[in-house]
Amino acid sequence: MKVVEINSLVLAYLGDAIYEEYVRKYLINKGIANVDSLQKEAVKYVSAKAQKEIIERLISEKFLNEEEFDVFKRARNCKSNTHPKNCDIGDYKMATGLEALIGYLDLVGNKSRVDQIMKKVLGE
After folding, report:
1. Which of 24, 44, 63, 47 lies closest to 99, judged by CA?
2. What positions carry a catalytic annotation?
């Protein structure tokens, strides 16, 4: 199966795990040693609202190329039967698009681009 044929929500499922791992390593490397503190800091990056703000910034800065933007849009527009009750559906869809982009780039083997995007996400 070609990566472009994989369901966007499946790409987001993978991207969510990759994104979360980057955030967790980043926070641990900052020297945060308390699990509660790690969780509170992580929310600043992994909540749907935070991810929406991040992807909006990447788009406004024209950081994504055309292919990446297409992957994001396909996932953002993907019909989902559920979404978390604690967030806005628009925020959730934008976050899903960002996560799908990360998953897509990983599956096509473009880990250097994942690194670039995550450095922007984490403000490095």
Report:
1. 47
2. 16
Domains and CATH numbers, the chain: 3-121 (1.10.1520.10)
Eight-state DSSP code of residue 84:
-
DSSP string across the chain: --GGGS-HHHHHHHHHHHHHHHHHHHHHHTT---HHHHHHHHHHHHSHHHHHHHHHHHHHTT-S-HHHHHHHHHHHT---S---TTS-HHHHHHHHHHHHHHHHHHHTT-HHHHHHHHHHHTT-
Q: What is the pLDDT of residues 69-91, one digit of tens each?
A: 999 999 998 877 666 777 888 89
Q: What is the pLDDT of residues 11-49, one digit of tens each?
A: 999 999 999 999 999 999 999 989 999 999 999 999 999
What pTM was computed for the model?
0.92
